[in-house]
Amino acid sequence: MKYCSDKPYPPIEVEGTNLEYAKILLEDYAGAGGEDTAIHRYFYQSLVTDEISKMLEGISRVEMHHLEILGTLIWKLGYTPAFYTVDSNIECVIPWTSKYVDYSCDLETILLEDITKEMYAIKRYEKHIMEIDDCYIKRILERIIEDEKIHIECLQKAYHEYCGKICE
Question: Does 137 have pLDDT greater than 90?
Answer without folding.
Answer: yes
